[in-house]
Amino acid sequence: MMDLTIKNGRIIDPSIARDEIADLYVVDGRISARPSGAECETIDARNLVVAPGLIDIHVHLREPGQSHKETVETGSQAAAAGGFSSIVCMPNTDPPADNASTIAWITDRARACAAVNVYPTGAITKGLSGQEMASIGSMVQAGIVAITDDGHCVQNHEMMRRAVEYARMFDLAVMDHCQDYDMVGSGVMHEGYWSTVLGLAGWPRTAEEIVVARNILLAELCNTRIHCQHLSSGGSVRLLRDARARGIPVTGELCPHHIALTDEFVSSFDTNYKMNPPLRAREDVEALIEGVADGTITILGSDHAPHAFFEKEVEFDRAPFGILGLETELGLFLTILVHRTKAIDLNRLITMYTVNPATLVRLPKGTLGVGADADITMIDPDLEWTFRKQDSFSLSRNTPFDGWELKGRAVRTIVAGKTIWKA
Ligand SMILES: [Zn+2]
C-alpha cells in the first residue's frame, strides 16, 4: 500500500475544529503531520470536502441467516459506495446476535470479507424476546459496541432498567427502537388521515413517544446514555429537546426517509414506502428538521434494511418493514438538510456522521487527527446525480428513491489509507 497526499481539499474535521483548504498526508495507513518520504500517490481534492470516514450507526447486514437479502460483504460494499468507512450492525439476524459466539462469527466474517470497518451490536434480551437478559458481559468481550433489540423493543420497563444498569458497568451505549407493541398492534402505516382513507391499520406516533419518554426517565434514573433510534415523530423531538436541556444523557437519530417522504406516499401501496417506524405527516417532517437544526437530534443514520424482491412484492399488510439506505443517505441529507432547507451546514452534517456516533459508541474513529487511522471520505457537496437502484452494491433493491435527483455525494472512500471505492 502506497502512502497518500490528498491535495487542496477543504478539510472538515469537527473533532479538532478544523475547516480549511489544505493538504492531508497519509503514511503507513495513518494520518500524518508531514508528507511521506517515500514514493506516494497524490489525489487532487480541489473543490472537494475531505472529511473523516463517515460512520453509519444503524445498518442491517442480515448475516448470519438471511444472506439472500444481504451479506457482510455486499452490505459493506454498499457502505463504501455511500461514503461510509465504518458501520454498526444490528443484532436482529437469524439466529439473533445475542451471544458471544454469534458476535465472534460476525467479527470473523467482517475481517474476512468486509470492505469497511464493521462494529457489531448485541441484543439486549435473549432471542430479542424481551423476556430474559442476554449475556451482555461476554458479548462485550467479543467486541460489541452497544446493545439494542432493534427491530424489537423491550416492553418490560424493569427489564430495560436492569439492562441499562448492566450496560453502565461496561460504559456501553444502549440503543432502542422505540415502539409500544400494544399501541401499534397490527399497524402498518402512520395512524392519521391517509391510514383512514386507505383502510390500513394505523401505527400512532404516541406509540413511539411513550417509549422515548420511558427511555428519558431511565437515562435519568441510571445516569447512562440511551440512544433513541430512527425517530419519526414530532412529539419525540419535543420530549428529547426538554430532556437534553435538563442534561439527561439521551440522544436521537434521524433516517433520511422520515424527512424525504410522508405517509401520503403510501397511497401508491408500493411496499417500498413501508418502514418501521412509519413515514409520518408533514408536521412531523418539519419538527424533525427543526430538531436537527437546533441540535436536539445529533446523529444521522440509514436503518439500511435490505429485503428480497419476492418478500416485498406482496400485499402492503404482509410486506416486511424497511428499505435500503447506505447509498442514498448522504445524498438525501445533503439535498434536504444542507441545500434545500439549510437546517445545517456541511460542518454540522459531518459532525453528525463522525464525532457524534463515535462518541456514543466509543469508536476510535471519526477524526483526522495526527496518528488516527486514515479513514477518509471525500465528498462533492454540489455534485448533481441521479440514484439508480440497478447500480446498487446491495443484494436487494428495495428502495423508494430509484431515479431521484440528488445534490451532493461521496466520491471516494478510504479505509486505513486504502481507496476502497471511488465514483
Ligand atoms: Zn428499528
Describe the structure.
The protein has 423 residues and is α/β, with parallel strands linked by helices. Helix content is 31%, strand content 23%. The protein has 14 helices and 18 strands. It has helices spanning 72-82, 100-113, 136-142, 157-169, 181-184, 193-198, 206-222, 234-245, 257-260, 282-293, 309-312, 329-340, 346-353, 355-361, and strands at 3-13, 18-27, 30-32, 40-44, 49-52, 54-59, 84-89, 117-120, 146-147, 173-176, 189-190, 202-203, 226-228, 250-254, 299-300, 376-386, 405-415, 418-422. Helix 2 (100-113) packs parallel to helix 3 (136-142) and helix 7 packs parallel to helix 8 (234-245). The protein binds zinc ion.
Secondary-structure map with pairings?
Layout: E1 3-13, E2 18-27, E3 30-32, E4 40-44, E5 49-52, E6 54-59, H1 72-82, E7 84-89, H2 100-113, E8 117-120, H3 136-142, E9 146-147, H4 157-169, E10 173-176, H5 181-184, E11 189-190, H6 193-198, E12 202-203, H7 206-222, E13 226-228, H8 234-245, E14 250-254, H9 257-260, H10 282-293, E15 299-300, H11 309-312, H12 329-340, H13 346-353, H14 355-361, E16 376-386, E17 405-415, E18 418-422
Parallel strand pairs: 1-4, 1-5, 6-7, 7-8, 9-10, 10-13, 11-12, 13-14, 14-15
Antiparallel strand pairs: 1-2, 2-3, 5-16, 16-17, 17-18
Residues 150-151, 177, 229-230, 276 line the site of zinc ion.
